[in-house]
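Entry 14. Ran structure prediction on the chain below.
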Amino acid sequence: MNGKILKSKEATQKIIILVTVVVLFSFFSIMKPTFASYDNVMTIALSTCVNGILALGVTFVITSGGIDLSLGTVMTFSSVMSGIALTKWGWPLWLSILLGFFVGILCGGVNGFAVAKMKLPPFIATMAMSMITKGLSLVISGIKPVYFSSAKNYQNIALGSFLGINGFYNAFVLYLAAILIAYLIYSKTLIGRYTLSIGSNEEASRLSGIRVDQWKILIYILCGLFSAGAGLIMSSRLNSAQPQLGAGYETEAIAAAVIGGTSMSGGEGSIIGTVIGAFIISILTNGLRVMAVPTEWQSIVIGSVLALAVYIDQSRRQKKGLN
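Output, C-alpha coordinates:
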Protein backbone atom coordinates (compact mmCIF):
# COMPACT_ATOMS: atom_id res chain seq x y z
CA MET A 1 0.00 0.00 0.00
CA ASN A 2 2.79 2.43 0.95
CA GLY A 3 4.56 1.66 -2.33
CA LYS A 4 1.42 2.50 -4.29
CA ILE A 5 0.99 5.76 -2.40
CA LEU A 6 4.64 6.67 -3.03
CA LYS A 7 4.35 5.95 -6.76
CA SER A 8 1.14 7.99 -6.87
CA LYS A 9 2.88 10.95 -5.24
CA GLU A 10 5.84 10.66 -7.64
CA ALA A 11 3.45 10.60 -10.62
CA THR A 12 1.63 13.66 -9.27
CA GLN A 13 4.94 15.49 -8.83
CA LYS A 14 5.95 14.73 -12.43
CA ILE A 15 2.60 16.01 -13.69
CA ILE A 16 3.05 19.23 -11.71
CA ILE A 17 6.49 19.93 -13.18
CA LEU A 18 5.24 19.04 -16.68
CA VAL A 19 2.46 21.59 -16.24
CA THR A 20 5.11 24.06 -15.10
CA VAL A 21 6.96 23.54 -18.39
CA VAL A 22 3.79 24.28 -20.37
CA VAL A 23 2.92 27.34 -18.27
CA LEU A 24 6.41 28.84 -18.56
CA PHE A 25 6.59 28.23 -22.30
CA SER A 26 3.15 29.75 -22.82
CA PHE A 27 3.97 32.78 -20.65
CA PHE A 28 7.19 33.65 -22.47
CA SER A 29 5.55 33.03 -25.85
CA ILE A 30 2.82 35.53 -25.02
CA MET A 31 5.23 38.09 -23.58
CA LYS A 32 7.68 37.73 -26.48
CA PRO A 33 6.35 35.98 -29.61
CA THR A 34 9.91 35.41 -30.90
CA PHE A 35 10.42 33.06 -27.96
CA ALA A 36 8.36 30.37 -29.73
CA SER A 37 10.25 30.72 -33.02
CA TYR A 38 11.87 27.61 -34.47
CA ASP A 39 15.41 28.93 -34.07
CA ASN A 40 14.87 29.83 -30.43
CA VAL A 41 13.24 26.49 -29.62
CA MET A 42 16.31 24.79 -31.12
CA THR A 43 18.51 26.99 -28.96
CA ILE A 44 16.57 25.94 -25.86
CA ALA A 45 16.84 22.28 -26.85
CA LEU A 46 20.60 22.51 -27.44
CA SER A 47 21.22 24.27 -24.13
CA THR A 48 19.10 21.63 -22.41
CA CYS A 49 21.34 18.91 -23.83
CA VAL A 50 24.35 20.35 -21.98
CA ASN A 51 22.64 21.28 -18.72
CA GLY A 52 20.54 18.14 -18.84
CA ILE A 53 23.53 15.79 -19.04
CA LEU A 54 25.21 17.62 -16.15
CA ALA A 55 21.97 17.32 -14.18
CA LEU A 56 21.80 13.57 -14.84
CA GLY A 57 25.24 13.11 -13.32
CA VAL A 58 24.61 15.23 -10.27
CA THR A 59 21.30 13.44 -9.62
CA PHE A 60 23.27 10.35 -8.55
CA VAL A 61 25.54 12.39 -6.27
CA ILE A 62 22.71 14.31 -4.60
CA THR A 63 20.63 11.16 -4.16
CA SER A 64 23.60 9.57 -2.37
CA GLY A 65 23.61 12.47 0.08
CA GLY A 66 26.49 14.40 -1.53
CA ILE A 67 26.95 17.41 -3.76
CA ASP A 68 29.23 18.26 -6.69
CA LEU A 69 30.17 21.90 -7.27
CA SER A 70 32.80 21.04 -9.89
CA LEU A 71 30.41 19.99 -12.65
CA GLY A 72 30.89 23.03 -14.88
CA THR A 73 34.66 23.35 -14.57
CA VAL A 74 35.21 19.59 -15.01
CA MET A 75 33.08 19.88 -18.16
CA THR A 76 35.34 22.68 -19.41
CA PHE A 77 38.59 20.99 -18.39
CA SER A 78 37.68 17.77 -20.20
CA SER A 79 36.87 19.68 -23.41
CA VAL A 80 40.08 21.73 -23.16
CA MET A 81 42.15 18.56 -22.81
CA SER A 82 40.38 17.00 -25.79
CA GLY A 83 41.02 20.16 -27.79
CA ILE A 84 44.71 20.32 -26.88
CA ALA A 85 45.20 16.64 -27.74
CA LEU A 86 43.44 17.07 -31.07
CA THR A 87 44.85 20.40 -32.26
CA LYS A 88 48.24 20.63 -30.53
CA TRP A 89 49.36 17.04 -29.98
CA GLY A 90 47.99 15.68 -33.24
CA TRP A 91 45.96 12.89 -31.66
CA PRO A 92 43.16 11.30 -33.74
CA LEU A 93 39.63 12.48 -33.01
CA TRP A 94 38.43 9.31 -31.30
CA LEU A 95 41.44 9.22 -28.98
CA SER A 96 41.06 12.91 -28.11
CA ILE A 97 37.42 12.33 -27.19
CA LEU A 98 38.41 9.35 -25.03
CA LEU A 99 40.96 11.55 -23.26
CA GLY A 100 38.18 14.02 -22.42
CA PHE A 101 36.11 11.23 -20.87
CA PHE A 102 39.15 9.92 -19.00
CA VAL A 103 39.72 13.40 -17.55
CA GLY A 104 36.09 13.51 -16.39
CA ILE A 105 36.42 10.06 -14.81
CA LEU A 106 39.69 11.06 -13.12
CA CYS A 107 38.21 14.25 -11.66
CA GLY A 108 35.16 12.36 -10.44
CA GLY A 109 37.38 9.71 -8.89
CA VAL A 110 39.42 12.32 -7.05
CA ASN A 111 36.21 13.93 -5.77
CA GLY A 112 34.93 10.56 -4.59
CA PHE A 113 38.23 9.66 -2.92
CA ALA A 114 38.34 13.01 -1.11
CA VAL A 115 34.78 12.52 0.16
CA ALA A 116 34.87 8.79 0.93
CA LYS A 117 38.45 8.18 2.08
CA MET A 118 39.72 11.59 3.22
CA LYS A 119 36.34 12.33 4.82
CA LEU A 120 36.18 15.85 3.42
CA PRO A 121 32.72 17.41 3.28
CA PRO A 122 31.44 17.07 -0.32
CA PHE A 123 30.95 20.84 -0.49
CA ILE A 124 34.64 21.49 0.29
CA ALA A 125 36.06 18.61 -1.77
CA THR A 126 34.18 19.50 -4.94
CA MET A 127 34.66 23.25 -4.51
CA ALA A 128 38.41 22.59 -4.36
CA MET A 129 38.15 20.49 -7.52
CA SER A 130 36.23 23.32 -9.18
CA MET A 131 39.03 25.76 -8.42
CA ILE A 132 41.73 23.30 -9.51
CA THR A 133 40.12 22.41 -12.85
CA LYS A 134 39.32 26.03 -13.57
CA GLY A 135 42.97 26.94 -13.03
CA LEU A 136 44.25 23.98 -15.06
CA SER A 137 41.98 24.88 -17.98
CA LEU A 138 43.39 28.41 -18.05
CA VAL A 139 47.03 27.30 -17.66
CA ILE A 140 46.95 24.50 -20.23
CA SER A 141 45.07 26.58 -22.82
CA GLY A 142 47.20 29.66 -22.23
CA ILE A 143 44.03 31.57 -21.25
CA LYS A 144 42.91 31.34 -24.88
CA PRO A 145 40.10 29.40 -26.53
CA VAL A 146 41.08 26.13 -28.19
CA TYR A 147 39.51 26.19 -31.65
CA PHE A 148 38.54 23.03 -33.50
CA SER A 149 38.41 24.68 -36.95
CA SER A 150 41.23 22.42 -38.17
CA ALA A 151 39.38 19.29 -37.05
CA LYS A 152 37.08 18.08 -39.80
CA ASN A 153 33.48 17.42 -38.83
CA TYR A 154 34.05 18.06 -35.10
CA GLN A 155 31.11 20.46 -35.01
CA ASN A 156 28.92 17.77 -36.55
CA ILE A 157 29.17 15.76 -33.32
CA ALA A 158 26.55 18.09 -31.85
CA LEU A 159 25.17 20.10 -34.75
CA GLY A 160 25.11 17.51 -37.51
CA SER A 161 21.68 16.35 -38.66
CA PHE A 162 20.88 12.88 -37.40
CA LEU A 163 20.19 10.55 -40.35
CA GLY A 164 19.91 13.65 -42.52
CA ILE A 165 16.75 14.83 -40.75
CA ASN A 166 16.74 18.61 -41.02
CA GLY A 167 16.66 20.30 -37.59
CA PHE A 168 17.14 17.09 -35.63
CA TYR A 169 20.67 17.53 -34.30
CA ASN A 170 23.01 14.78 -33.20
CA ALA A 171 23.16 16.48 -29.80
CA PHE A 172 19.54 15.47 -29.20
CA VAL A 173 20.39 11.83 -29.90
CA LEU A 174 23.39 11.98 -27.57
CA TYR A 175 21.20 13.50 -24.87
CA LEU A 176 18.54 10.83 -25.32
CA ALA A 177 21.26 8.17 -25.09
CA ALA A 178 22.54 9.77 -21.86
CA ILE A 179 19.00 9.78 -20.43
CA LEU A 180 18.53 6.11 -21.29
CA ILE A 181 21.89 5.15 -19.78
CA ALA A 182 21.21 7.16 -16.60
CA TYR A 183 17.72 5.68 -16.26
CA LEU A 184 18.94 2.10 -16.68
CA ILE A 185 21.80 2.60 -14.22
CA TYR A 186 19.51 4.30 -11.70
CA SER A 187 16.66 1.81 -11.88
CA LYS A 188 18.21 -1.49 -12.98
CA THR A 189 21.68 -1.75 -11.44
CA LEU A 190 23.38 -2.04 -8.06
CA ILE A 191 24.76 1.48 -8.45
CA GLY A 192 21.27 2.93 -8.48
CA ARG A 193 20.09 0.74 -5.65
CA TYR A 194 23.08 1.54 -3.45
CA THR A 195 22.90 5.23 -4.34
CA LEU A 196 19.42 5.34 -2.83
CA SER A 197 20.45 3.21 0.14
CA ILE A 198 23.50 5.31 1.00
CA GLY A 199 21.53 8.53 0.66
CA SER A 200 18.71 7.22 2.84
CA ASN A 201 20.92 5.94 5.67
CA GLU A 202 24.67 5.65 5.15
CA GLU A 203 25.40 3.95 8.46
CA ALA A 204 22.65 1.37 7.99
CA SER A 205 23.99 0.68 4.49
CA ARG A 206 27.48 0.13 5.90
CA LEU A 207 26.18 -2.21 8.61
CA SER A 208 24.26 -4.21 6.00
CA GLY A 209 27.52 -5.02 4.22
CA ILE A 210 27.55 -2.37 1.50
CA ARG A 211 31.04 -1.04 0.82
CA VAL A 212 29.94 2.55 1.12
CA ASP A 213 33.30 4.18 0.38
CA GLN A 214 33.83 2.25 -2.87
CA TRP A 215 30.32 2.97 -4.09
CA LYS A 216 30.64 6.66 -3.24
CA ILE A 217 33.78 6.88 -5.35
CA LEU A 218 31.98 5.12 -8.20
CA ILE A 219 29.03 7.53 -7.93
CA TYR A 220 31.33 10.55 -8.24
CA ILE A 221 33.15 8.89 -11.15
CA LEU A 222 29.79 8.48 -12.87
CA CYS A 223 29.09 12.17 -12.34
CA GLY A 224 32.48 13.06 -13.83
CA LEU A 225 31.71 10.89 -16.84
CA PHE A 226 28.46 12.75 -17.50
CA SER A 227 30.29 16.07 -17.06
CA ALA A 228 32.76 15.05 -19.76
CA GLY A 229 29.86 14.12 -22.04
CA ALA A 230 28.37 17.58 -21.55
CA GLY A 231 31.80 19.05 -22.36
CA LEU A 232 31.89 17.15 -25.65
CA ILE A 233 28.52 18.55 -26.74
CA MET A 234 29.35 22.07 -25.55
CA SER A 235 32.72 22.23 -27.33
CA SER A 236 31.26 20.72 -30.50
CA ARG A 237 28.39 23.19 -30.48
CA LEU A 238 30.81 26.15 -30.10
CA ASN A 239 33.49 24.45 -32.26
CA SER A 240 35.91 25.45 -29.54
CA ALA A 241 36.84 24.80 -25.91
CA GLN A 242 36.42 27.98 -23.91
CA PRO A 243 38.65 27.77 -20.78
CA GLN A 244 36.76 30.54 -18.98
CA LEU A 245 33.40 28.86 -19.55
CA GLY A 246 31.88 26.43 -17.07
CA ALA A 247 31.68 28.11 -13.68
CA GLY A 248 28.02 28.53 -12.78
CA TYR A 249 26.73 25.58 -14.77
CA GLU A 250 26.61 23.51 -11.59
CA THR A 251 23.94 25.82 -10.16
CA GLU A 252 21.56 25.22 -13.04
CA ALA A 253 22.29 21.48 -13.08
CA ILE A 254 21.62 21.14 -9.35
CA ALA A 255 18.49 23.26 -9.71
CA ALA A 256 17.24 20.99 -12.50
CA ALA A 257 17.75 17.88 -10.36
CA VAL A 258 16.09 19.39 -7.29
CA ILE A 259 13.14 20.80 -9.25
CA GLY A 260 12.74 17.33 -10.77
CA GLY A 261 12.29 15.73 -7.35
CA THR A 262 15.80 14.84 -6.21
CA SER A 263 16.05 15.56 -2.50
CA MET A 264 19.00 17.59 -1.21
CA SER A 265 18.81 15.43 1.92
CA GLY A 266 19.57 12.33 -0.14
CA GLY A 267 17.75 9.04 -0.56
CA GLU A 268 15.28 10.25 -3.16
CA GLY A 269 15.65 11.12 -6.83
CA SER A 270 14.18 10.79 -10.29
CA ILE A 271 15.94 10.65 -13.66
CA ILE A 272 12.75 11.53 -15.56
CA GLY A 273 12.06 14.34 -13.10
CA THR A 274 15.59 15.67 -13.66
CA VAL A 275 15.03 15.68 -17.43
CA ILE A 276 11.87 17.75 -17.01
CA GLY A 277 13.61 19.99 -14.48
CA ALA A 278 16.38 20.67 -17.00
CA PHE A 279 13.80 21.84 -19.53
CA ILE A 280 12.27 24.15 -16.93
CA ILE A 281 15.66 25.76 -16.21
CA SER A 282 16.44 26.12 -19.94
CA ILE A 283 13.06 27.66 -20.70
CA LEU A 284 13.33 30.02 -17.75
CA THR A 285 16.89 31.10 -18.60
CA ASN A 286 16.20 31.55 -22.30
CA GLY A 287 12.90 33.34 -21.68
CA LEU A 288 14.57 35.88 -19.42
CA ARG A 289 17.26 36.48 -22.05
CA VAL A 290 14.73 36.93 -24.83
CA MET A 291 12.90 39.44 -22.66
CA ALA A 292 16.22 41.28 -22.25
CA VAL A 293 16.31 40.79 -18.49
CA PRO A 294 19.82 41.78 -17.25
CA THR A 295 22.18 38.90 -16.44
CA GLU A 296 22.36 39.79 -12.77
CA TRP A 297 18.56 39.53 -12.49
CA GLN A 298 18.62 36.21 -14.32
CA SER A 299 20.96 34.90 -11.61
CA ILE A 300 18.61 36.21 -8.93
CA VAL A 301 15.64 34.43 -10.50
CA ILE A 302 17.46 31.09 -10.96
CA GLY A 303 18.82 31.28 -7.41
CA SER A 304 15.36 32.02 -6.05
CA VAL A 305 13.87 29.08 -7.95
CA LEU A 306 16.55 26.78 -6.51
CA ALA A 307 15.92 28.06 -2.98
CA LEU A 308 12.15 27.58 -3.43
CA ALA A 309 12.65 24.03 -4.74
CA VAL A 310 14.81 23.10 -1.74
CA TYR A 311 12.29 24.68 0.64
CA ILE A 312 9.44 22.70 -0.90
CA ASP A 313 11.52 19.51 -0.68
CA GLN A 314 12.36 20.10 2.98
CA SER A 315 8.73 20.90 3.83
CA ARG A 316 7.58 17.74 2.06
CA ARG A 317 10.08 15.56 3.94
CA GLN A 318 9.10 17.12 7.28
CA LYS A 319 5.45 16.29 6.59
CA LYS A 320 6.45 12.72 5.77
CA GLY A 321 8.25 12.55 9.11
CA LEU A 322 5.23 13.86 10.91
CA ASN A 323 2.98 11.39 9.13
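The chain has a mean pLDDT of 90. Will compare against last week's run tomorrow.
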